[in-house]
Amino acid sequence: MVCILLVGIIGLVMLLSGFQRRNDVFVSDFSLLEDGKALPEIGVAGSMGYVRKLEPIGTKDNVLLLDAYSAFGGPNGSIGAKDAYAIPVAEDVSAVALCRSGGEYENCAGKEGRDLARAEAGNIVEK
Question: Which residue among 51, 52, 60, 103 is least enclosed by CB atoms within 10 Å?
């Protein structure tokens, strides 16, 4: 009985970690694909964990807001993890921002003409 309970708890920890939003993600490189999608290459600033999903949640003042989610498999799990994600970017979007703590978003890329380039750190966008 105790063994079954223990296995169940471990299974829940490994599964539920994949639904946590990460706020320590950074963009190491950006490129635009021919179909108009952005291809950010991302990393995690923390010493543990990986990203399994980068999800656009909307725009504010022509800034595309992105949420990042932990990979499955526990605190340092890598199930479903990737380093690059194809994100649709509308023509009127002027910047891309990643989730930070407290519901804030930090600009990680800005448009220069038709291209996206990494932005300077510290430019916060309120949700």
Answer: 103
